[in-house]
Amino acid sequence: MNGQNRSDIRPGLEVDIVLKQDQRTGKLTRGIVKDLLTNSPRHPHGIKVRLQDGQVGRVKQIYQET
């Protein structure tokens, strides 16, 4: 699943995000969702989340529930 729909994402999911500084290269960072930061139900570039380690970025890929 891609990360464009807020309803697909919830705390505890394993996701790949793109950090702000990695947007040009597209480098992905994997982690577990702690908080959802985007309030709109959909976002074309991915829903912005905070990972459990504190990193913030837009979801590009959703993996599995942990």
Automatic annotation (TrEMBL):
Protein name: YwbE family protein
Organism of derivation: Paenibacillus lemnae
